[in-house]
Design goal:
The chain folds into 2 domains: about 80 residues, Glutaredoxin, CATH 3.40.30; about 110 residues, Glutathione S-transferase Yfyf (Class Pi), Chain A, domain 2, CATH 1.20.1050. The chain has about 220 residues and is of the alpha+beta class. Helix 4 runs parallel beside helix 7 and helix 5 crosses helix 6. It contains 9 helices and 4 strands; from the N terminus they run E-H-E-H-E-E-H-H-H-H-H-H-H. Helix content is about 50%, strand content about 5%. The radius of gyration is 17 Å and the shape is globular. Belongs to the GST superfamily. Zeta family. It comes from Malurus cyaneus samueli.
């Protein structure tokens, strides 16, 4: 019996969802997408139906192989272990550690601080808050990447770190962060956005992208 197609619960603009969409695209895994609008109806992630799926009431969530997973890196690691090609974690333990370090730096050290739930608490200051959080994170990241980067975040192969970088740069641009001080981040991001997997998973090309934001 053929296994059912995975179902991804996603919001077009969610950077965490975009990470997973890139992984699915790179690994050639076709899936059905269920949009969860984080703004409409006070946030569809707060519905009882979605809470049953992901108690954290966040996207992404992925139904795959009979289980439901949340948290983007947990999902990406599962995809890496079940669909090893193309690999998203280098074989060399040092490079692999660097990939995880950069990914963690973004997913733990930058993105949660400028997440929608935090910005709601910030009121009028939300733009300034988001800019400061991203800028301080990017200052550190720029320094790290100067030691690890080749064409991409770690050497010349796309890795889990890159899947975190491009969506975070999109967030930075949305919050009008000056990218001038971060030439390495900017260069890597430009190279990533030329790749097909990053293009088809892009927020401007999702089923739930509003008409005015479509590419």
């Amino acid at each position: 019996m053929p296994s059912e197609k995975p179902i991804l619960y996603s919001y077009f603009r969610s950077s965490c969802s975009w990470r997973v969409r890139i992984a699915l695209a790179l690994k050639g895994i076709s899936y059905d997408l269920v949009p969860v609008n984080l703004i409409k109806d006070g946030g569809q992630q707060f519905s009882a139906e979605f809470k049953a799926l992901n108690p954290m009431q966040q996207v992404p969530a992925l139904k795959i192989d009979g289980i439901t997973l949340s948290q983007s890196l947990a999902i990406i690691n599962y995809l890496e272990e079940t669909h090893p090609n193309p690999r998203l974690l280098p074989q060399d333990p040092k490079k692999r550690a660097q990939v995880r370090m950069i990914a963690d730096h973004i997913v733990s050290g930058i993105q949660p601080l400028q997440n929608l739930s935090v910005l709601k608490q910030m009121g009028e200051k939300k733009m300034e808050w988001a800019q400061n959080c991203i800028a301080s994170g990017f200052q550190a990241l720029e320094q790290i990447l100067q030691h690890t980067a080749g064409r991409y975040c770690v050497g010349d192969e796309v890795s889990m770190a890159d899947l975190c970088l491009a969506p975070q740069v999109a967030n930075a641009e949305r919050f009008k962060v000056d990218m001038g001080p971060y030439p390495t981040i900017t260069r890597i991001n430009k190279a990533l956005l030329e790749l097909e997997a990053f293009k088809i998973s892009h927020p401007s090309r999702q089923p739930d992208t509003p008409a005015e934001l479509r590419a």
